[in-house]
Amino acid sequence: MRFYFFLLLFSFFASIVLCGFQCGRQPELCDRYTNDSILFGYDVTNHTNMQVFDTLQLQAIINDSIQTVNQLRFIEPLTTFACTVQAYKVVMYNGAPMLQYANIEFNPVLYQGQYDVSSSNGFSFIFNRLQPYNLLRNGFVAGRPGLYLFKIQSRPNYYYYENIYVNGYPCTQFRTSSFIDEPTQGKQYWTSLGTTSLRLLGGGVNAIVNKDDRDYFFVAVQ
After folding, report:
1. Domains of the chain: total
2. What is the pTM of this model?
3. What is the mean pLDDT of each run of 10 residues along the chain (222 residues)?
4. Which range marks the domain in which residue 66 is found?
5. Is the Cβ–Cβ distance between 118 and 155 less than 8 Å?
6. How far apart are CA 145 and CA 165, in angstroms?
């Protein structure tokens, strides 16, 4: 009886040791992480000389073949890609320009993609998946005049995170960000506003957008 007890005990510990090497051993923690960035580009059209009831056009084609800011190249399946578009109106408060939410000043229209009803912030959309691409084409119908700022947050796999990790780069974290071509951003408005950052009225001291950011654009509606 004692023999079978020791045999069972030996088998138990042996299985633990073997499984440590063969059953998906966890990778060792990295001493430090290398930082890199992935930029997801968006095209904006029909956004200059806008009148009330004009439609601003927004579209994006996100490819699984990725090149990072540090020139790394790899394929990462982005099977459920989404984005949130937040509109703000530029207002003056005590002589200083600030931002207010402008969700009711624009009506969204969708040509390709889906509405993301799970999100309560801004206008959220899910891209159509056509492997190896994710496709979105939508618009925003202006309802009131004013100077507006649109900010886009890309959301790979629906999650609200800034960093993703890719197989093959275990000690590298990739910061994801949306990208608008600089000529499209309307950076000339910063000069007339007399500032290089804008914060939300009643929203604390942190800036919503800075002049050097690349995930926003201005729209003036007459």
Report:
1. 1
2. 0.83
3. 42 40 46 92 94 98 96 93 96 96 96 88 94 97 98 82 83 94 96 97 93 98 97
4. 39-221
5. no
6. 42
